[in-house]
Amino acid sequence: MVEKKEVSGREGINGLPGFPVVVACIKDNPITLAAVSFFSFNPPMVMIGIVKNRYSYELIKETNDFTLNIPKLEQLEKVHYIGTKSGREVDKFKETGLTKVKSKTIASSMIKECPVSLECKVVHTLDLGGSHVWFIGEVSAAYIEESYNRSQAITYWPREYRRVGEVYAKRTKSFELEYV
Rounded CA gap, 119 and 108, in Å? Predict the structure, then answer.
């Protein structure tokens, strides 16, 4: 057995595989997040984590909704810009040239150029005293470009943006592994 060294909890979290990169919109303010996860298939729910001192935290407390927009790797510079600027100071749609689109079921905008957009209504908020407050959103509408492939998505590892990896095996309907 290979020996393991003891590390801090933060270093342990950094051992997790990459986190998906999304651009959430709260009202008309896009925010780049890697603190995002699926929460439930039925009903479909996702959750996003936002730090309390962020402008988006104030906005989501007002709107109680958000969109989750999945960018492609080709949009990385815009995604990075959105993640480094505050909507208090700049109009990130104007600065990046991205197009806001009115959502069908909620107040927050979607991003036209992102191949996947989910409209989400906040159904629960978790503030456990950590760095992020978690907002669980039930998906009220979803849109995907026909040509979208999940391999176009971006993941984030500490200080690194990465492309989603290769497929090595698939799980069959009988729960067996089929190697590709």
Answer: 8
Q: In what order do the strands lie in the sheet with 160-163?
A: 19-20, 154-157, 160-163
Q: What is the pLDDT of residues 112-136, one digit of tens each?
A: 999 999 999 999 999 999 999 999 9
* CA distances to 165, 171, 175 from 179, in Å: 15, 9, 13
3-state secondary structure of 124: strand
**Who's near 51: CB < 8 A, 6+ residues apart?**
57, 131, 132, 133
Residue 125 backbone dihedrals phi, psi, to 5 degrees = -125, 130
In the block, tokens 């993941």 appear at 155
In one-letter notation, the amino acid at residue 167 is V
Specify the DSSP class assigned to residue 132. Answer: -
Per domain, the residue ranges of the chain are 18-179
CATH classification for the domain delimited by 18-179, as one of 2.60.40.10, 1.10.940.10, 2.30.110.10, 1.10.10.10: 2.30.110.10
Say yes or no to pLDDT of 150 above 90: no
C-alpha span between 60 and 51 (Å, rounded): 11
